[in-house]
Amino acid sequence: MGKLDGRTVLITGAARGQGEQEARLFAAEGARVLLTDVLDGPGEALAKELGEERARYVRLDVREEADWAAAVAAAKDAFGKLDGLVNNAGILRFNELVNTPLEEFTEVVRVNQVGAFLGMRAVAPELAAAGGGTIVNTASYVALSGMAYVAAYAATKAAVVGMTRVAALELAARGIRVNAMCPGAVDTPMTNPALLDPDADPAQTAEAVDELYRKAVPLGRIGRPEEVARLALFLSCADSSYITGQPFVIDGGWLAGVQLF
Ligand SMILES: NC(=O)c1ccc[n+]([C@@H]2O[C@H](COP(=O)([O-])OP(=O)(O)OC[C@H]3O[C@@H](n4cnc5c(N)ncnc54)[C@H](O)[C@@H]3O)[C@@H](O)[C@H]2O)c1
Fold first, then answer.
1. Structural domains in the chain, sorted by start
2. Which Gene3D superfamilies match (predicted)?
3. Which end of the chain has a smaller Cβ tally under 10 Å, C or N?
């Protein structure tokens, strides 16, 4: 028996990174998953690998209201209902606050913050119609702590935590639980663009990443996307049945405090 037997979950940004691992784990736990992204090739390939019974792919740019309406319709068409959402899609831009162009700031807001808002707004009525469900938003540990050079990103992730609490309050009576994940550093193309570079030496890249996080993170390493997927599973299944409105830090202890040695 899977922890998500009988459930149908829409995952954004599911073509790679954490979204891909969430899709794989949710399907393995019995869910039918609607994979969505703007990376059509990898998204379609993953859906094909998971099989038509379990997974479908549709293009969904989380900034676009019309795409959300179409994706919700596609989920119901393919699987009959929708009772879970993982708002995972996101982008990261590094810049000093005083040098951040308005267009860059706005672009990060549109994907990370407006995208999560549109997702909850489009999907919540379907979850209510299905008799209840779960929403898992992906924030970041920088929603709870500062980090230089990520003003736009930190602002949007704090907003995601804020919206998570509001949505939890408003949707509880309809049987919908809403929580947020706050990952630290996780080994995906977002933090490690060398993963996408065919010319990069994988051994050299892995060594540089290991060296960086060995000292910074109490558990001594960068996180794996599979580990974040397991938190998303916990927050999407009955194991978390009495939990709503909370941000969950998953960071190897990075936010626990200052490390002197
Ligand atoms: N990797 C980390 O260290 C880390 C830490 C904290 C939070 N996060 C958050 O985790 C989530 C997943 O990131 P990841 O690490 O897997 O990175 P990633 O870059 O590998 O994956 C992000 C996915 O989002 C998709 N995406 C981007 N813009 C989109 C749009 N407009 N519409 C739909 N999809 C879009 C991308 O195509 C990609 O598949 C993000 O919200 C990110 O902010 C990541």
1. 8-186+225-247 (3.40.50.720), 187-222 (no CATH)
2. NAD(P)-binding Rossmann-like Domain (3.40.50.720)
3. C
- Non-local (6+) Cβ contacts of 110 within 8 A are 63
Whether 149 is catalytic: no
Under DSSP, is residue 54 helix (H, G, I), strand (E, B) or coil? Answer: coil
Contact predicate 223/251, CB 8 Å? yes
Q: What is the pLDDT of residues 100-127, one digit of tens each?
A: 999 999 999 999 999 999 999 999 999 9
17 lines ligand 1 (CB under 6 A): yes
Residue 154 near ligand 1, beta carbon < 6 Å: no
Integer Cα distance of 4 and 25 in angstroms: 10
The three-state DSSP-derived secondary structure of 14-35 is CCCHHHHHHHHHHHHCCCEEEE
Query: Span 182-199, mean pLDDT?
Result: 90
Check residue 232 and give its pLDDT.
99
Whether residue 46 has its Cβ less than 6 Å from ligand 1: no
**pLDDT classification of 67: cutoffs 50, 70, 90:** very high
Residues whose CB falls within 8 Å of the CB of residue 98, separated by 6 or more in sequence, listed in order: none
Q: How far is the CA of 64 from the centre of ligand 1 (A)?
A: 17
Choose the catalytic residue: 57, 141, 149, 153.
Answer: 153
Tell whether ligand 1 has an atom less than 6 A from the beta carbon of residue 250: no
- Distance (Å) from CA 173 to ligand 1 centroid: 30
Residue 91, Cα to own-chain centre: how many angstroms? Answer: 11
Ligand 1 contact, 216 CB (< 6 A)? no
Helix (H) or strand (E) holding 153: helix 151-171
Distance 174 CA to ligand 1 centre (A): 29
